[in-house]
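Hey team,

Sharing the ATP-dependent dethiobiotin synthetase BioD run so nobody has to redo it. Sequence (229 residues) first:
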Amino acid sequence: MLKYLFVTGTDTAVGKTVVSQALLQHLAALNHSAVGYKPVATGDKLTADGWRNQDALLLQSLSDPIRPYREISPVTLPGDMRGIYNGEPMDFALMSNGLHQLSRQAQTVIIDGHGGWQSILPDYRSYSEWVVHEKLPVVMVIGIQTGCINHAILTAQAIATDGLRLVGWVANRINPGLAHYAEVLEVLRKKIPAPQIGELPYLPRAQQRNLAGYVDLSAVMALKARLTA
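Structure output:
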């Protein structure tokens, strides 16, 4: 298994954290230790300990071994997002140090991205600049909805242009009423230059479920074997 998997999406709210959850649960079922990492999160709730993000808390609960919240999510932006684009430098070193620290705790780190591939940070840099700096292999989450084929193809092209490897993609049926669902998946399988490693049906309260069976990392494991042969 690869040491790192960075989970990006074709847009925001397409299910990156749900897929990260599925990957962590799948690895746990294989007795493979893995921790979740959300380097940049948006705080959902202000607590006595500061802003806390529900996605980061979920990743923390699924990590093996369990790590403190600040290790899981070192940067938490204000929940209302007002005034965050202020030019204040993002600490890429802090994000990288956290990643490397977690890599010493488990066999694999599942990194849950923030927004889409070109999501902009408070200092106007793209989040993908950090991913490129760390040379992370990428898993793309495609929220199956109107326009997703275009978004998926453009995202895959952007990842390749940035010099990174797209190791797989996951279809997440976020719109249960979408017509021609099967045809959309067939187009994606023909057009995306990476294997499909998962398919999640529309699942209310997915965070409360075991999603291990909806993903299959055998193609990623095979890639690791080829790279080290």
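The helical segments are 16-29, 54-62, 69-72, 92-103, 127-134, 148-161, 181-191, 218-228.

Ping me if you want the raw files.
A.
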